[in-house]
Amino acid sequence: MKSRKLFHAICTILASAAVLIVSTASLLWVHQPKVPNELLNK
Q: Residue 34 is inside which H or E element, if any?
């Protein structure tokens, strides 16, 4: 039972971290200036 609780906690942490990363990335993507074509072609 304890391991299941730990697993749930890890999942919650991972999920919140993923949301944070995605929201930060989208914010940066929206607010950034025009991207050079060299970066897009990689």
A: none
Domain count across the chain: 1
CA distance 39 to 41: 6
Q: CA-CA distance, 39 to 25, in Å (whole number)?
A: 16
Residue 32 sits at φ, ψ, to 5 deg, of: -75, 155
Residue range 2-36, pLDDT digits in tens: 899 999 999 999 999 999 999 999 888 887 766 66
Domain span including residue 37: 2-41
Predicted model pTM:
0.56
